[in-house]
UniProtKB/TrEMBL annotation:
Family note: Belongs to the peptidase C26 family.
PANTHER family membership: FOLATE GAMMA-GLUTAMYL HYDROLASE, PROTEASE FAMILY C26 GAMMA-GLUTAMYL HYDROLASE
Gene Ontology terms for molecular function: gamma-glutamyl-peptidase activity
UniProt keyword terms in alphabetical order: Hydrolase, Secreted, Signal
A GO cellular component entry from the record: vacuole
SUPFAM superfamilies: Class I glutamine amidotransferase-like
Protein name (database record): folate gamma-glutamyl hydrolase
């Protein structure tokens, strides 16, 4: 390892307040593997096989930016999940519709969240991305409470309202200027949620306020809610909107956007998160174990163009 790189890395680590990455992790890992949590099947899903699923759009989203995906199945032991944690380079908490305090999804999310906090505190850089339900799950994990409130945001595309200085945050600083302009002016972020974290509840909760920086907000006309945030001291990121839908879901309803700028926004979020995962050096103990864990071992089921998730992977 050449010295200047080490010195630069240390300086960079001091400039921001993120955990100092281990010196060994100055090298980027160009074979990143990202875990995606499965969750209990939606009630009444006529295509369901087994008891849990992952929507294929999240897999494609990560693959499009240069990562491979490992599905993380429900009902495992804490020991199973700990083993997976030290084999993957980042975690994505997808959207969906489960209980944020009682489901298997929430149980898994808590185990991985706590492992990630511990790892980052020890200089082992481990990023987490939450989308929609994943965003909401992160708020529950950080505050240890459900502070969400109902909003009228079930199928609407909105322009992001950027907080002051958001363009210089870790997430957005690598976005092209014209894309940031599109995000702020065009209705290109897909919102499909009933629950939101209001700016009011965020502001009143010391744990959330200390932990996350608000990057963007939106409103349903009555309540202002947080649409994008990143943690101050951890590589944790959350969007209440759905960047993966624009390129990879085709249900024809309000809120769905397939414009060039919407698809660019999708790619830049994915590319940002995958570049974060490249800073992690976890790996499977053997190539055989890696091969066996990857999503390529499973086949997605086509549920129809008019399904909210067009293709799902199902698991026992
Ligand atoms: C997972 O555990 C839940 C209870 O937490 C149980 O209802 C369900 O049948 C289990 N699923 C599998 C696939 O074991
Ligand atoms: C704040 O959180 C509580 C749950 O603790 C919820 O009932 C309430 O609707 C929320 N209020 C707003 C304005 O978000
Ligand atoms: C576009 O966004 C605005 C909020 O800035 C919202 O009031 C409006 O309903 C949106 N339009 C569509 C077609 O989604």
């Amino acid at each position: 390892m050449c010295r200047p790189a080490v010195v630069l890395a240390v300086l960079a680590a001091c400039a921001c307040s993120l955990p100092v990455p281990a010196l060994g992790s100055v090298h980027l890992n160009y074979r990143p593997v990202i875990g995606v949590l499965a969750q209990e099947n939606l009630e009444g899903d006529p295509h369901a096989q087994g008891s849990s699923y992952i929507a294929a759009s999240y897999v494609k989203y990560l693959e499009s930016a240069g990562a491979r995906v490992v599905p993380i199945r429900i009902n495992g032991t804490e020991e199973d999940y700990t083993k997976i944690f030290y084999a993957i380079n980042g975690l994505l908490l997808p959207g969906g519709d489960v209980d944020l305090q009682k489901s298997q999804f929430s149980r898994m999310a808590k185990i991985f969240y706590e492992l990630a906090i511990k790892a980052n505190d020890a200089g082992d850089y481990f990023p987490i991305w939450g989308t929609c339900q994943g965003f909401q799950q992160l708020t529950v994990l950080t505050s240890n409470k459900n502070l969400l409130t109902l909003t009228n945001t079930k199928a609407v595309a909105l322009p992001l309202v950027f907080s002051q200085g958001a363009q210089n945050t870790r997430m957005f600083k690598s976005f092209p200027k014209d894309l940031l302009l599109s995000l702020s002016e065009e209705n290109i972020t897909s919102n499909f949620h009933s629950w939101s974290l209001s700016v009011q509840n965020y502001t009143r909760n010391a744990k959330l306020k200390r932990f996350y920086k608000v990057l963007t907000t939106n409103t349903d006309g009555r309540k202002e809610f947080i649409s994008t945030m990143e943690a101050y001291r951890y590589p944790f990121y959350a969007v209440q909107w759905h960047p993966e839908k624009s390129p990879f879901e085709w249900i024809d309803k309000p809120g769905m956007v397939h414009s060039v700028s919407a698809i660019r926004a999708s790619f830049y979020t994915a590319s940002f998160f995958v570049s974060e995962a490249m800073k992690n050096q976890h790996r499977f103990p053997t190539p055989q174990e890696e091969e066996k864990a990857l999503i390529y071992n499973y086949m997605p089921v086509f549920k129809g163009l008019d399904s909210i998730f067009m293709q799902n992977y199902y698991f026992d």
